[in-house]
Specification:
heterodimer; A: Immunoglobulin-like; 6-stranded mixed beta sheet; 4-stranded antiparallel beta sheet; globular; B: 7-stranded mixed beta sheet
């Protein structure tokens, strides 16, 4: 079935560690790709998006993601995490430039102070 | 611009009762989306509107669910004869017309508990 897969359900890191959260999708054709973040008690917020052009996308708060078309991947990275990055992160795709966004199951990130 | 507003924030209802949720999108956004999120899952698409027209409904949206956006502004989601499996966070989002190009702005959600 077509889907968005996030490899890690729960990640625990210490402050200043590097972060990479995996995301793969199974839709063919042209896609738009997103990472959303949900901080504790808050609503979903857009972290970054890929529409076209440079496959390395920079978002807010020092996050970046790389679109690798051949691997159907859009992994999220941050060189040095902070305690305030504790949140749930969702990878999302609009398949074939469809009108609706399809979300992965999310990765819960916990940063130890 | 006060963002996307959803009411109520929480709703507890007895099984079999009807419930209605309201979403007020960002005023200049003509697209409005409803999603459902359960514990340990990402948001699941339910339906979306462009202005007052409902353009797509998910198979998740059974006959007990109905959504409206009568004047192309706010939207309501009604669940009739609620079941325990309906317990979830119901999320509303809005976007300009080509939402897939921009991403959506989400509201804080309505948490439904069916007892």
């Amino acid at each position: 079935a077509q889907s968005v897969s996030q490899h890690n359900h729960h990640v625990i890191l210490s402050e200043a560690a590097s972060l990479e959260l995996g995301c793969n999708y199974s839709y063919g054709g042209t896609v738009n790709l997103f990472w959303y973040v949900q901080y504790p008690g808050q609503h979903l917020q857009l972290l970054l998006k890929y529409f076209s052009g440079d496959p390395l996308v920079k978002g807010i708060k020092g996050f970046e993601a790389e679109f690798i078309k051949s691997k159907f991947s859009f992994n999220l990275r941050k060189p040095s995490v902070q305690w305030s990055d504790t949140a749930e992160y969702f990878c999302a795709v609009t398949p074939n430039r469809d009108d609706k966004i399809i979300f992965g199951k999310g990765t819960r990130l916990h940063i130890l102070p | 611009d006060t963002g996307v507003s959803q009411n109520p924030r929480h709703k507890i209802t007895k099984r079999g009762q009807n419930v209605t949720f309201r979403c007020d999108p960002i005023s200049e956004h003509n697209r409005l989306y409803w999603y459902r999120q359960t514990l340990g899952q990402g948001p699941e698409f339910l339906t979306y509107f462009q202005n007052e027209a409902q353009l797509e409904k998910s198979r998740l949206l059974s006959d007990r669910f109905s959504a409206e956006r009568p004047k192309g502004s706010f939207s309501t989601l009604e669940i009739q004869r609620t079941e325990q499996g309906d317990s979830a966070m119901y999320l509303c989002a809005s976007s300009p017309r080509w939402g897939q190009n921009y991403g959506y702005t989400f509201g804080s959600g309505t948490r439904l508990t069916v007892v």
